[in-house]
Amino acid sequence: MTKNIQTVAVCGAGGTMGAGIAIVAARAGYTTIAYDMQEDALQHSYEQTEAFFNKSVERGKMSELERDAALANLSSTTSLEGLAKADLIIEAIFESLDVKRDLFGKLDKICPDHTIFASNTSTLSITEIASGLGRQDKVVGIHFCLPAQLMKLIEMSPGENTSEETFQKAWAWAEEAGQTPVKTQDKPGFILNALLVPFNNDVIRAIEAGVAEPADIDKAIKSGLGYRMGPCELLDLIGLDTQIRLCEAFYPITLDPRASAPPLLRRMVAAGKLGRKSGCGFYDYHQDAMFGG
């Protein structure tokens, strides 16, 4: 295990992304603290995590001993003070610059000097997130891909003031947690979302134009291009409201019409069709299970 990182805290662990990141850390043998403001969200997340690990045992992907050890590594708290001993804090909270700055500002007063602050953002500048802190050299971007518990890729980006030491420690942690990091610049979307957001918008416009149904588009993309997940499945997983936020982050910067939110996307979000988390998006969902569980 990485010498400098023993304890990992995940903020926003009551959500889909945060829960997946906590699984990655706990499964890799790190003492893992799941933080969320809502106790019921943490409890729900833990139940889904337990079910995911049980399914992993059934499928032969881990032993019962490994499952028990991973669950033993995982604890939860609704108090920021409970994160005071974390060596690495990964936030996966609401995609708002002010909210993320406020969280890190509070943790800056609680955590020891060596603590690394990592943001899972895909739309906001790491440099801007770090700008309100006294330890900008300790802030780095660590962007996981959904579902984090299954996808290996991490897009890692340094801010303007991120130290090389911080970046290398975070990179080493990612590798030792079984992930595959790639280095990106501190730009909205990094690699994947900069390409995927316009592509997914093209898919939504094709549906709105009557080119094909979501299921047929997904089948074509998976069969013809070899993707493991169709774009409509992916949009439902990340959340259609998240896709709108991605569009609103990219379009003012790029002025690329393909990055603007399609009318169908806005209508679906207005109707409460957000994807898996609302039970309905491009598909209907009738089970409450973590993806892959």
How would you portray this structure in words?
- With about 290 residues, this protein is an alpha/beta fold.
- The chain folds into two domains: about 180 residues, NAD(P)-binding Rossmann-like Domain (Rossmann fold); about 90 residues, N-(1-d-carboxylethyl)-l-norvaline Dehydrogenase, domain 2.
- The protein is built from eleven helices and eight strands.
- The chain has an eight-stranded mixed β-sheet.
- Helix 7 packs across helix 10 and helix 9 crosses helix 10.
- The protein is globular, with a radius of gyration of 19 Å.
- The model has no long low-confidence stretch (mean pLDDT about 95).
Question: What is this structure's SSE topology?
Answer:
Blueprint: E1 7-11, H1 16-27, E2 31-35, H2 39-58, H3 64-72, E3 74-77, E4 88-91, H4 97-110, E5 116-119, H5 126-130, E6 139-144, E7 153-158, H6 164-176, E8 180-183, H7 192-208, H8 214-225, H9 231-238, H10 240-254, H11 263-270
Helix pairs in contact: 7-10, 9-10, 10-11
Number of helices: 11
Radius of gyration: 19 Å
Category from helices, strands and their pairing? alpha/beta
Kindly identify the CATH topology of the largest domain: Rossmann fold
> What is the strand arrangement across the widest sheet?
3-2-1-4-5-6-7-8
The CATH homologous superfamily of the largest domain: NAD(P)-binding Rossmann-like Domain
CATH class of the largest domain: Alpha Beta
